[in-house]
Design a protein that fits this description.
With 383 residues, the protein is α/β, with parallel strands linked by helices. It has helices spanning 33-42, 59-65, 81-91, 112-121, 166-175, 184-190, 210-221, 262-274, 280-283, 297-309, 332-343, 361-364, and strands at residues 4-10, 27-28, 31-32, 49-54, 75-76, 99-104, 127-133, 138-142, 145-150, 156-158, 162-165, 195-199, 223-236, 240-243, 246-249, 253-254, 313-322, 350-355, 368-379. It folds into 2 domains: 4-221, Spore Coat Polysaccharide Biosynthesis Protein SpsA, Chain A (Alpha-Beta Complex), CATH 3.90.550; 223-379, 60s Ribosomal Protein L30, Chain: A (2-Layer Sandwich), CATH 3.30.1330. The structure holds magnesium ion.
Amino acid sequence: MTGCVALVVAAGRGTRMAGDRPKQYRPLAGRPLLRASLEVLRHHPRVTAVRAVIHPDDRALYDVAAEGLDLLPPVAGGATRQESVRLGLDSLAELAPELVLIHDAVRPCVPSTLIDAVLDGLAGADGAIPAMPVVDTLKRGENGRVAATVERAGLWRAQTPQGFRYEAIRAAHRAAAGAGLSDDAAVAERAGLAVALVPGAEHNIKITTDDDLRRAELFAAGETRVGTGFDVHRFGPGDHAWLCGVKVPHSHGLIGHSDADVALHAVTDAILGALAAGDIGLHFPPSDPLWAGAASRRFLEHAAGLVVARGGHIRHIDVTIICERPKIAPHRAAMVAKLSEILELSPERCSVKATTTEGLGFTGRAEGIAAQAVVTIQLPIVE
Ligand code: MG
């Protein structure tokens, strides 16, 4: 296999935090920490597959955290982090990926751009790790007193995900079994592998205490963005129109390069707008024969995937379909259900409305259908 598999290490017991469950299953912005880590890796375009390494006792918690995500089955970890990673690497032997990213589940705020930086760093090295320079003055303490000031020049704080060439890090882990090393870069170093430093992120917090969790909540809440979308398609010959992913019988069809689902196009553009990521024509050029007759849910899934890849989520969508005919009301529930399914968003967060223009204008003359949409998304703060 070529490509890159991400191992998410989630087998720890989290003894430093109180609570009824290990910290990787504690909620962050209403979702288990582990899910946030799994999602950002799973939706990263350069990551081929994701596998979690879990404690066997946590299977039920894992199943809830990973629900609906397309992941490799989890494997059981060992008594230490190092052993868990080794078992995870061994479990990938048949897949034999070219690259592997090893990530701690308790760093749920990892930005997608940091994952890119690590993978880029692997171009010229056996390994690459994100790290932050130490800026605080370092002291060595003894019995509550300062014993010495430690030179901080050249010191870095290592984060995850750490990226490696799979065969090299697997061999290094096998050779280092039982050595009690605290990260994979140390395992690589012991084997003489070249490991590059790439820029980490201050908010790629490792959650080890309740205080860390509170700080991560601030980052996870992120910023709220609103996007709008608008689209029009002309009526032509046909006996149905696709609207919000639902096939609606009608005396005419809608003309377009794809299935001409004007409502899904408006929602897709609203999501792209909230991301400041251009418009639907930029991502799916009408000149490209690949999209001839395409189901518009593919466009919407692509836009929603971009939100998740940025570590964000869609909070709410509101679409208005503007036409005299066909009547939308009989299909509204099916349209809400379809949006809910495509966007993996609860139906209470998917609004479909319809209006006429009182016989005025091109919609009034039944020349076509217009749709407009508003979407609210939440994005992590990356600055
Ligand atoms: Mg369109």
